[in-house]
Amino acid sequence: MQSKQTRAAVLYGPGDLRIESRDVREPEADELVLQVTVSGICGTDLHYWDGWQFDSWFPERSDPWIPGHEFTATVQAVGPAVHDLKPGDAVAVEPNNSCEDCPECDRGMLNFCSNRMPMAWGAWSDVVIANRHHLTPLPPGADMRTASLAEPLACVVRGFDRVTVNPGDTVFIAGAGPIGLLALQVAKHQGAGQTIVSEPGATRRRLAATLGADVVLDPRRDDPVEAARSLTQGFGADLAIEAAGAGPAFQACLDTVRDSGTVLVISVGNPSEKFELRLYDFFARERTIVGSNTRVHTFERALDLIPDLNVEPIITHTFDLNDAVEAVMTAKSGAGAKVVFDFRS
User: How confident is the model at residue 3 (pLDDT cuts 50, 70, 90)?
Assistant: First the structure.
């Protein structure tokens, strides 16, 4: 019997992305065959393209592999043990699920599960195989395009779970890429009084203004510290969110947050870069720095939250998979925000 094949964008190494045909095997008992609908380009996909070397948490990628973990899809076929989904059903897909049965999971640290369950391959592909455990059914008529933002939004929601936004708080956000723009939406949804966004890219600054940022700064010419203090009677931001993965953005957060305020880091910085902190400042300013890693029971919450937010403008560019290299270069350029592949055309 001739095997089925799918088109896929395969990353062989830094800057080496090729469109190829790959065999599609039959699903195992608890697996499904999915037709990808919309699949996004994440910042971590770009980091692998750039050749970043991760020394923890992220998997090593020595063999050619198919990126893509932010996506929606339609069920094509189901394995014999899957009884609650059928061909034609729409789903959102949560990658790298936890086992919920290891010591880390027992302590509630699902994002540090020692038996994480990755997908067979990523969704820069017409067809993928996924375990039922990865899938969340979508209601009839769901917007498959905006639902593809569930995974990055779930990561942002996880970050907000780790801090407190009180009604009326001033929130400063460094970086207006997809994560920063989603953080802006969540901050406003949680009752932030004033939101300040700092972003060097003109298109992203316009997006931040469109999405309701009260003050939008260009860090190349504007002083975020002065702006934050002028809006808060000299105190500074209650919460500063680092969403750019860059040292200058982190420094801006440290400088902008008020005494006894909180800095939330929801970006992925380059592991090869270091940042110097002065121990005395933790005494003198009593700041709290909070890290956040992916998701912990936030994926379905993010799906439920999407209709209440204005996320559609965050998707600025759409490509066919055959133009994957152009799509990656567009995402890297910062010419817009979220870049996606749409497989329906």
Answer: low
With 0-12 / 13-18 / 19 or more C-beta atoms within 10 angstroms meaning exposed / middle / buried, residue 153 is buried
pLDDT tens-digit map of 299-310: 999 999 999 999
| Domain regions of the chain by residue span | 4-152+295-342, 163-291
Residues in the chain: 345
Using CB atoms within 10 A of its CB, is residue 164 exposed (0-12), middle (13-18) or buried (19+)? exposed
Alpha helices (H) along the chain: 43-50, 103-106, 144-147, 150-161, 178-189, 202-210, 224-231, 247-256, 279-284, 299-305, 324-333
CATH (residue range 163-291) = 3.40.50.720
Confidence (pTM): 0.96
Tokens of 135: 């899938």
CA distance 223 to 44: 29
pLDDT tens digits for 107-144? 999 999 999 888 878 999 999 999 999 999 999 899 99
Contact at 8 Å (CB) between 224 and 140? no
R_g (Cα) of the chain, nearest Å: 21
2: tokens are: 């001739």
